[in-house]
Amino acid sequence: MATALNVPPATTTTTLPQMKKEEEKVDYLNLPCPIPYEEIHREALMSLKPELFEGMRFDFTKGLNQKFSLSHSVFMGPMEIPSQSSETIKIPTAHYEFGANFIDPKLMLFGRILTDGRLNARVKGDLTENLSLKANAQLTNEPHMSHGMVSFDYKGKDYRTQFQLGNGALFGANYIQSVTPHLSFGGEVFWAGQHRKSGIGYAARYNTDKMVATGQVASTGLVALSYVQKVSEKVSLASDLMYNYMSKDVTASFGYDYILRQCRLRGKIDSNGCVAAFLEERLNMGLNFILSSELDHRKKDYKFGFGLTVGE
Amino acid sequence: MASQPRRGGVSLPERRAAKSDSNGSIISKLSGSPIVSRGRQAASDAVLVTRKLLKSTGKAAWIAGTTFLILVVPLIIEMDREQQMNELELQQASLLGTPPQPQK
């Protein structure tokens, strides 16, 4: 749901204010893990877009220190190649990924390198109490496919603002302000020099303890509305509507998210005829078993994956 | 019965012109009569319609069945396990003598 045309991560609006009982407006700190979409849709995305995969996945994370950890990950399975014809072409691939993480309250560093030559790096650090820096880079063997982005976030009392620079002359800025304890509005502008495109977008988010409703409009033609209702402690239901007024493309999806003690199950059904489910089950302390399935009835494309995650 | 290249939907085939057989026995005359040929047409149309209905019902049942299998069956299994674990905990709590915790 990024409104930037090239896929590089966040044109993030990073403010999600919430109400505390005494004060009027309180800033809400983001989760430490950066999400490459608009944070405003975070709840809906968590429920409706799990990381579905096809094949086998194995992740092992080993902490060497309190702050430093290494991770090894193996993936084997078919990868889809974007093709001109309507048929999807899948090629079996396998790769091994080695990563290192350094996590500190003030500084976080992530690095990943794959056997097919790709390198991902992410940095998140607090320069001062209110100003923080986020950077990420993806380097590949193929020419012109590497990109990087730097963003500076400033957190005010009840607002947040962010300025981004990316390669290919990508500039973006966004601002979000909380208007009432439950409601916040934001806007963003971006300019992509390489594609000579620019855009402006607006977003609004209304949240209470039990529900979150967000809406987003962008000049790239995207209108996205989402609604998440927390039905109980363990269950939440989400629905999402995406409409592109340039290409007249509509997609609606509904999903559920069950967080039980031993497992987390997410399921969703789509108006494109896609049904997906994602199950993470805790077999033991530190051992998680993952099952992912996706049926596309319209294209008759069925994908199933399983995996194991070891380590915290 | 020409099969028209149409996608989905139920369409009745074109009607053959009724052949009338004038020379021959009374049976062939009867079987050539318009009422009998109409009846035959109606029967074959009914067969065709039923076949198409069965096919689309089969398709719908397949989609509904696999969707149910993916969306609902893991949910039932997990909720069942959760319930079993809750009961076990309750049992253990009452065995150990602690008062049972209020269930969420």
TrEMBL record, chain A:
Name of the protein in question: Mitochondrial import receptor subunit TOM40-1-like
Keyword Transmembrane listed: yes
GO CC annotations on file: mitochondrial outer membrane; pore complex
Domain of life: Eukaryota
Any Pfam family hit: Porin_3
Organism encoding this protein: Carya illinoinensis (Pecan)
MF GO annotations: porin activity; protein transmembrane transporter activity
GO BP: monoatomic ion transport; protein import into mitochondrial matrix
Membrane topology: Multi-pass membrane protein
Keyword Thylakoid: no
Subcellular location: Mitochondrion outer membrane
Family, per entry: Belongs to the Tom40 family.
From TrEMBL, chain B:
Domain of life according to the entry: Eukaryota
CDD domains tied to this protein: TOM22
Keyword annotations: Membrane, Mitochondrion, Mitochondrion outer membrane, Protein transport, Receptor, Translocation, Transmembrane, Transmembrane helix, Transport
Gene Ontology biological-process entries: intracellular protein transport
Alphabetical list of InterPro entries matching this protein: Tom22 (IPR005683), Tom22_pln (IPR017411)
Stretches with biased composition (Polar residues): 20-31
Gene Ontology CC terms, in alphabetical order: mitochondrial outer membrane
Compartments where located: Mitochondrion outer membrane
Membrane topology: Single-pass membrane protein
Region annotation Disordered: where it falls in the sequence: 1-31
Transmembrane regions listed in the UniProt entry: 60-77
Similarity comment text for this entry: Belongs to the Tom22 family.
Name of this chain's protein: Mitochondrial import receptor subunit TOM9-2-like
